[in-house]
Amino acid sequence: MNQPVSASPVVSVGSVSFGQDRPLSIIAGPCQMESRAHALEVAGALKDIAARLNIGLVFKSSFDKANRTSASGARGIGLKQALPVFAEIRSSLGLPVLTDVHEAAQCAEVAQVVDVLQIPAFLCRQTDLLLAAAATGKVVNVKKGQFLAPWDMGNVVAKITGGGNRNILVTERGASFGYNTLVSDMRALPILARTTGAPVIFDATHSVQQPGGKGASTGGEREFVPVLARAAVAVGVAGVFIETHPDPDHAPSDGPNMVPLREFEALVRRLMAFDALAKAADPACPE
Questions:
Q1: How does pLDDT run across 74-125, given as a tens digit for each residue?
Q2: N or C: where does the chain have the smaller number of CB atoms within 10 Å of the terminal CB?
Q3: Where are the alpha helices (DSSP H) in the chain?
Q4: Half-sphere exposure of residue 269, counting CA atoms within 13 Å on the CB side?
Q5: In this structure, are residues 118 and 100 in contact, taking their beta carbons and an 8 Å threshold?
Q6: Chain segment 165-196, per-residue pLDDT in tens
């Protein structure tokens, strides 16, 4: 009888490493790809910050925001226009790249130019999508659905490992709590690590969303991003996901919960300090 395949406890994305006991790495970028120039501007700025801080960075942006609150919401520049930009960011800046996929048919094409395929939270139980992403051999980052308990993600990860891919990240982004509200349960972080065996990422910006909170769009409470990020890093995670933008108040999506780019470096510097304390060996307090 075949033994079940487990997720890899350490996942490498180019030169960036994610592991519960490894130094913190970051996934960051604007919510959606607005243009080639904008993506390269933000990616270049983030690369410079990561170099100064000596921290691993994966650039993130979405070619399509397929689950906007309203049909009138801007969705992004689309698959065909975005793929050459992702390829250029990888080749010219040397940054690994992550983006969302929404349909099984997109996986193979997107995998040609990115390093990580991300499964949106609303789609985390879509078996065909998970298997198609797994089949590419790329790292798969699965966001835990707002409607799932952390231990339910064991079944999600098993679908991907069953598809022959052990390189999985699991991302916590809050749980639905009443109407238009999410809550972050920090117990979910060690539970996710224990029940999936995969490195755990904390999504600090989507965790402060207020889904549909502005009627035809999603609201957010940006001021709580540093609060939740510090708490998650203190508990212990492999990485933090932070959407950032030069002018989030005028961004086409997720502006209320994105971190202004000018504040990004100071936030990450503080998180690195918390991470060093959380992962320091303490002989008096064996785990």
A1: 567 899 999 999 999 999 999 999 999 999 999 999 999 999 999 999 999 9
A2: N
A3: 36-53, 79-88, 107-111, 127-135, 153-162, 188-196, 225-235, 261-279
A4: 9
A5: yes
A6: 999 999 999 999 988 889 999 999 999 999 99
Token pair for 256: 């209320």
The rounded distance, in Å, linking the Cα atoms of 79 and 107 is 11
Specify the DSSP class assigned to residue 121.
Answer: G
Q: Which CATH architecture has domain 20-279?
A: Alpha-Beta Barrel (3.20)
- The residue type found at 75 is R
End-to-end CA distance of the chain: 34
Q: What is the value of pTM for the model shown? A: 0.92
Parallel/antiparallel/unpaired status of strands 97-100 and 56-60: parallel
Task: State how far Cα 11 lies from the chain centre.
Answer: 14
One-letter amino acid at 232 equals A
What 274-280 contacts at long range (C-beta under 8 Å, 24+ apart), as own/partner pairs, is 274/230, 274/233, 274/234, 275/23, 275/24, 275/233, 276/23, 277/234, 278/233, 278/234, 278/235, 278/236, 279/21, 279/23, 279/236
Q: What share of the chain is helix, strand, coil (3-state, %, to 5)?
A: 40, 20, 40
